[in-house]
Every structure is written in structure tokens, then in C-alpha cells.
Design goal:
This protein is an alpha+beta fold. 44% of the residues lie in helices and 21% in strands. Strands 2-1-3 form a 3-stranded antiparallel sheet. The chain is flat, with a radius of gyration of 16 Å. The chain starts with a helix and ends in a 7-residue tail after the last helix.
Amino acid sequence: MKTKKELKEAYKQMEFPIGVFQIENKINNKVLIDCSMDMQSKWNRHKMELRFGNHRNRILQNDWNIHGEEHFVFKVLAELKNEEKDTFNYNKELKTLQAMVVEEFEIKNLY
């Protein structure tokens, strides 16, 4: 069995998907565009907030309450490669990438 220290070190070495994603309402085609250094964890956070009825986007929450979880899908729109550089500003790059994705896909039906 691994020690706590070994488990922490193994966690630090893990790479998580970095990028831009959308949560799409399949009923009205509205989307929430978001970005994260760990997209899967961020998606899980959005789902938990929606399930508990306390998502910060009240319009999205209302649609979730009306249509149900089964009518929402998570989709990765763009990913950044892990550069492993301490000087690389992922947050700035993610925000730029998010804006580019919205413009490129001509997404107009946003939450």
C-alpha cells in the first residue's frame, strides 16, 4: 500500500485535460461555454451545482430544472497541450482560446 506522501506525489504528476468546453441544452440549443485547467472536474462541479439547484447561472439552472439532466450534454471544444512550463500562463491562454472558440463557431445562443 502506498503512503500518503507517495499518493500526493502521484497526484501531482497526473495530467488533466486543459481546455474549453460547452454544456449544451439539447432542447433549445443554448450553450454555456467555460474553460478550465481540469475540464472534467469543472464539468462535475457544474453538474453538482445544477443538481443541488444552486448554479450561479439562474437561466441555465431554470432550464435544467424544467428539462432535466438527460437533456444536457458536455462537449470539449478545444484543448491546450500541457507545456510543463512554469512561465506559461494557462489562465490567460484559456480565456483567449474561449473567446476564439465562441467567435469561430459563431456561437450566439449563450447562457
